[in-house]
Design a protein that fits this description.
alpha/beta; seven-stranded parallel sheet; about 325 residues; single chain; 13 strands; two-stranded parallel sheet; 9 helices; binds nicotinamide-adenine-dinucleotide
């Protein structure tokens, strides 16, 4: 079992939704220092308000794609472990498909080169369930074929192939974690890259109808962000995860109709929904098989969907974001 205490940890994308929760959890775990590298494409300083209370938290506003940037930070901060969380949200694929794809591949490429050179020791790489595409069978285990439906997902799948093959051929200290749909406090609530939960609650608050694409029977496997962060830390600690891809989900799928119903109920909304045409790139069904996470990491999600939705919407309300 690897001990994270006193290790110096770099988190790419640490000012984002999941990355900022990971920084907070690392700082509670007795690590040496937590170094966040984020270019603030979607990251926010507010997400780091807890982390910044710690003396051993260091922030670099910089681009994790660039070899020279990461190399100099790693040397200066004597980094042991990298958690790769940086990405540009899926919806960016619809505006700028090339960059939505490339950011995932470029950052993985840079991190692999640096690991190969010995600039740090262990990489915990974050994939996404989007790499699978629509379920060909359900629940989806890690052997399910990857058939991405967006450039974002193609970039995730391509990065995974690269990272996984390097881990095998060069016997590198790498684990790949594949989270399903995360939700919770700090998910982006603004503009076209907003998460569906805050975006829907915000529309209702502003007197607009919630939007549903297609028949609303498309499903996702929702996992509370705190559970994902626990899974990421376990992936470092449990060395049996090295060289493997491990799903992190709840093992249950929830339709978009059910999700919107829960949000409407919380917001006390009984009005109509705006029905839009289904997006062709929308994955139809996602549900995780989490047997491997249970066996290797001893992982089971602790927050139920109903509990998590309430905690999430309470947080947005307390922070006057909905
Ligand atoms: N949110 C989900 O439902 C979900 C599901 C599965 C996997 N994931 C994966 O988890 C990771 C974190 O996702 P998230 O939801 O927190 O996303 P996010 O957009 O909230 O965070 C990503 C962060 O990366 C930063 N970033 C983007 N490009 C960068 C660059 N070139 N250099 C440095 N920083 C850069 C952004 O500013 C942002 O702060 C990603 O790898 C994502 O693919 C997320």
């Amino acid at each position: 079992m690897a001990d994270i205490r006193n290790k110096n940890v770099l988190v790419t994308g640490g000012a984002g939704f999941i990355g900022s929760h990971l920084c907070d959890a690392l700082l509670q775990s007795g690590v040496g220092k937590v170094v966040c590298v984020d270019n603030f494409f979607l990251g926010k300083m507010e997400n780091l308000s807890e982390a910044q209370k710690h003396e051993n938290f260091i922030l670099y506003r910089d681009d994790a794609r660039h070899f020279g940037v990461l190399q100099s930070i790693m040397e200066r901060e004597c980094i042991d472990i990298v958690f790769n969380m940086a990405t540009i949200a899926l919806n960016y694929s619809f505006f700028n498909p090339f960059d939505a794809y490339m950011v995932n591949v470029s950052i993985a490429n840079t991190l692999l080169e640096l690991l190969k050179m010995g600039a740090y020791k262990t990489l915990i790489h974050t994939s996404s369930s989007e790499a699978y595409g629509t379920a060909q069978y359900s629940p989806m285990d890690e052997n399910h074929p990857t058939d991405p439906t967006t450039p974002y997902a193609a970039g995730k799948a391509a990065a995974d192939l690269m990272v996984h093959s390097f881990a095998k051929v060069l016997d590198m200290d790498i684990s790949i974690v594949r989270p399903f749909n995360n939700y919770g406090p700090r998910q982006n609530a603004e503009g076209p890259l907003a998460g569906i939960i805050p975006a829907t609650a915000k529309r209702i608050k502003n007197g607009e109808k919630p939007i549903i694409n297609g028949d609303g029977e498309q499903t996702r496997d929702f996992i509370f962000v705190g559970d994902t962060v626990r899974g990421l830390l376990l992936a470092y600690e449990k060395e049996e995860s090295r060289g493997k891809i491990i799903n992190l989900g709840s093992g249950k799928d929830i339709s978009m109709n059910s999700l919107l119903n829960l949000i409407c109920e919380y917001m006390g909304y009984r009005g109509e929904w705006e029905h839009r045409e289904g997006r062709t790139s929308d994955v139809r069904k996602l549900c995780a098989e989490i047997k491997r996470a249970r066996e290797i990491l001893g992982f089971d999600p602790q927050i139920s969907f109903e509990e998590g939705i309430k905690m999430t919407l309470d947080w947005y309300q307390e922070n006057c974001l909905i």
